[in-house]
What does this fold into?
Amino acid sequence: MSVPYEKTVLTGNQLDRKALLLAVLGAGAISCSAIYVTLAHTGYATAAFYRCLLAIPGLTVLAVLERRRLGPRPLRARLWAVLAGLFLGVDLVLWNHAIADVGAGIATVLGNLQVLFVALAAWLLFGERPGRRFFAALPVVLIGVLLVSGLAGHTATGQHPAAGIYYGLGTSVAYGGFLLILRQAGTTIRHVAGQVADASAGAAAGALLLGLAFGGLQLTPPLRTLGWLLVLALTSGTVGWLLITSSLPRLPAALSSLVLLLQPACALLLADLILGQRPTVIQVGGALLVCGGVLAATMGFRGRPSASSNRGDALAESCSPSGSVAMANRT
It folds into this structure.
C-alpha cells in the first residue's frame, strides 16, 4: 500500500545515514512482493485477499498502540480509508494478473505508473497543472511501457504482453483512485497505522468480492500457499512499510524518490535470479525509460491548489518527491 508522506527534511547539511539505510532496506523488502505472489502459485483474487487479511492482525496491534498514544481517529476518516481500500483490492487483483502475463519484475515496473494518473487527476479535479517536465516525461514513459511489455521484440518474461500492459495500466489507475480517496480521510500522517489497517481491511473485502463475482477465489488454499502469502504480508505489508514510513520523511526529497526506484530495479534482478525470468535488453531499456520518466515527472510536478480547497495541496504532496509514495502494502 502507498502512504503519502509529509515533506522530507534535511537537518543542516548532514545526511541522515541511518534513515537512508532503513529506506534502502524497506525498498528491498517490498521489491520481493511479486516474487512471493508467483511462488504462492494461487489465484489472483486469492493472493490479493490473503495478503491483506494476514497483514491485518499485526497492523491492528500497531493501530491500537497508535490510538493510545495519539488518540482516536474520526469515524469519517476510517470510512474513507475503508472505501479507499476497496480500490486497493481492485489494484492488487489486477496487478496479480499483470505478474502472470508479463512476469514479476516487469509487472513491478508497470506498477510505478500510478503517480502519473494521480497527477493528471489532481489537474482535472483540483486545477493543479503539472510542470513542464511532467508533460515532457509522458511520451518517454509511454515508449518505455511499450518496450518493457515485450510487444516490441521477443519477450522472455511473460506469455501475454498485450494483456500485461492493460492490467499494468489498470492497476495504476486503481491505485491512483486509492490514493485520491485516501486523501479525503483528512487525517495526518501521525495516524498511519490505523489508516493502513482500515485500508487493508477494505482491500481484503474488495478482493473477496471480486473473487466471488468473477471466480478464482480459493478460501482454503494449501499451507504452502498460505506460507508464502504470510511472508508477503509480514515483509511488504508490515516490515517494509514500517521501514519506509519511518525513514523517508527524514531524507531529502530527490533522494527519497531515487530510493523508491530501487524497488522495481531489485524486482527485475530478483525475478531473474529466483524465477529465471530474465528480461531482454529491450525490456531493460524500457524499464529504465519508465523509471526515469516517472522520476522526472514527479520532480517536475508543481501543484497549483484551488482557492476553495486545501485538498489539492495534499494531492500535490502525494505526487511530488516531498510526498514520495511508498508502495509498501501494494507491491
Summary: Strands lie at 2-3, 326-327. The longest helix spans residues 75-102. The first strand starts at residue 2 and ends at 3.
